[in-house]
Specification:
With 220 residues, this protein is of the alpha/beta class. It contains 9 helices and 8 strands. The strands form 2 sheets. It has a 5-stranded parallel sheet with strand order 2-6-1-7-8. The protein starts with a strand and ends with a helix.
Length: 220
């Protein structure tokens, strides 16, 4: 049985967060960025002095009640020691650490239950990340995979963070390699997913493409 979930996967800076957030707003649905769980854990690990090479330690930290994730309309919020730290998790160094710890099967397994708990039978959910359609919600009603040329992605992320395109492109290339070659839940196009190249499309155009797929496939 299909879940009341629309998944949007893809590499960094392909437009996943912006598209999924705007889609959820326009449909009146919930929204979650599953990547926030990994970024949140990476941030907590860094400030706590955890060993990023210790899979067991990171897995235990993933289950700790010292941090948590809360859904909101604008962004998936991360709290640590009862303080919101969401602004801190989107720095490039945190993203790199998140990609590193996401290589560990035990860490991914520890975060999976909390990610799946974002969906329920009462309301629709738009879930974005790198393995939403393949692992987190394989029974989703609709699966989308966003992609874009590497230079377009680097320009977007550089503009967001105010850093050089060259620096961003290098970091993204390294993360893409990690994400696509890891043994645990590698980044890939989910089965039956609709692939959309966002390189030359603006936000509204992508959102409308996804909405057309929603309306053609099932009713709200």
């Amino acid at each position: 049985m299909s879940l009341k979930v629309v998944t949007i996967d893809g590499p960094a800076a392909s437009g996943k967060s912006s598209v999924s957030r705007e889609l959820a707003k326009s449909m009146g649905w919930k929204w979650v960025s599953t990547g926030a769980f990994y970024r949140g854990l990476a941030y907590v690990a860094q400030v706590s002095g955890a060993d990023l090479s210790n899979e067991s330690e990171l897995s235990e930290l993933a289950l700790s009640d010292c941090w948590g994730v809360i859904l909101s309309e604008e962004r998936t919020k991360v709290f640590f020691d009862n303080k919101e730290v969401t602004d801190n998790i989107y720095k490039e160094e945190v993203g790199s650490a998140a990609s590193q710890l996401s290589l560990y099967p035990k860490v991914r397994e520890s975060l999976l239950a909390a990610q799946r708990a974002c969906a329920n039978d009462k309301s629709w959910l738009v879930a974005e990340g790198r393995d939403c359609g393949t692992v987190v919600f394989p029974e989703a009603s609709l699966k989308i995979y966003l992609t874009a040329r590497s230079e377009a992605r680097a320009q977007r992320r550089a503009a967001e963070e105010g850093i050089s395109v060259e620096e961003t492109a290098k970091a993204q290339a390294e993360r893409d390699h990690q994400d696509t070659t890891r043994k645990a839940s590698p980044l890939q196009v989910p089965e039956q997913a609709h692939v959309i190249d966002t390189s030359t499309l603006d936000l509204n155009q992508v959102v409308e493409k996804v909405k057309s797929l929603i309306f053609s496939g099932f009713k709200k």
